[in-house]
Amino acid sequence: MFSKHELQVIGQTLIQRRDWLTKNIHKPEMANAKTQNERTLQIIESAVLKITNSLRAPAEATATEVTRDGVNHYVSQPSVSPSRQAVLDRRQNVAPADIRVLIVDDDQLICDLLSAYLAEIGITQIDTANDGMKGINMMFNANPIYDLVLCDWNMPAKSGIDVHNAMRAAERYHHAIFMLVTAVTEASQIRSAIQEGVDDYVVKPIEQDKLAKKIGRFFQQVRSTSTS
Predict the structure, then answer these.
(1) DSSP class of 122
(2) pLDDT digits (tens, 9 = 90+) for 37-65
(3) Domain match, 146 and 64 both
């Protein structure tokens, strides 16, 4: 078992590698290894998700068992709260048409574009907010809550991080998915956002299939447009 600090370091290293590959994968000098690099990116994405979930999971209860050979075997028994388990089960089985999404962006064209892309993969329960404060108010007033929030990073008054922190402050949103939609590609800034607890990010200009794949990491019934 890795310690929390070790997992954080591993996660940061993987994120740096992912960001570098994402930035350079289409360069001519990397063309011969494109297929392998795409596979590597998929593995890294999966590993980062597992590490993120592990860091958020409640502390594990560890039992010690002494077997006949006299060796101590440590058995980890993860403790998952009923509310978190219910969320995980829902993500596994919820149909795209039942996923509730909030888009927060001060650019209406981005809101319209994201809505159109989501509709293409079957997600139609979509609300939009054109500033961070309105987005926060809509989250707090939503019943049922949103499953996914897609939020611009740089907005006046309330930034995407402000919206994220406000969402996480509400207990019922602890397990909702939050993705930043951003033109920021600086690895250190992205890493800082992940450390804040952001689940993932979508880089502008937005590519429909990449958006679908990122959402599909969390909602198993969502399929990318290229494989539908």
Answers:
(1) T
(2) 778 877 887 787 777 777 665 443 334 44
(3) no
